[in-house]
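C-alpha cells incoming
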C-alpha cells in the first residue's frame, strides 16, 4: 500500500495518488458533484490563483500525513489585504 501524498509531491505541478485516505467521503463528494476524484484540484487552484494575480496557495502536511492544511492568501490589491495577511 502506498502512503498518501507527501509534502514533496504537493509542491509539484501535478499531484498523483493511487490510494484514497477515506474512500467513503470521496464517493460522497463525487455523488454530490463536488469533486471528480482525479487529483485535478491542485493544478486548477494554481491556475486560477495565477490567472487572478493572487499569491500561490500553500499546502502543508505533517510527516505522518495525518493532517492537511490549505492556505489561500488574499490578493495583494484587495482592500484590507494587508491586515488579513498580517494576521496569518
Amino acid at each position: 500500500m502506498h502512503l498518501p501524498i507527501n509534502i514533496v509531491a504537493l509542491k509539484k505541478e501535478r499531484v498523483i495518488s493511487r490510494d484514497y485516505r477515506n474512500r467513503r467521503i470521496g464517493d460522497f463528494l463525487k455523488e454530490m458533484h463536488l469533486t471528480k476524484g482525479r487529483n485535478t484540484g491542485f493544478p486548477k487552484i494554481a491556475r486560477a490563483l495565477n490567472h487572478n494575480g493572487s499569491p500561490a496557495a500553500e499546502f502543508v502536511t505533517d510527516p505522518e500525513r495525518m493532517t492537511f492544511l490549505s492556505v489561500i492568501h488574499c490578493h495583494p490589491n484587495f482592500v484590507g489585504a494587508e491586515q488579513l495577511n498580517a494576521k496569518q
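note: DSSP finds four helices and two strands in the chain.
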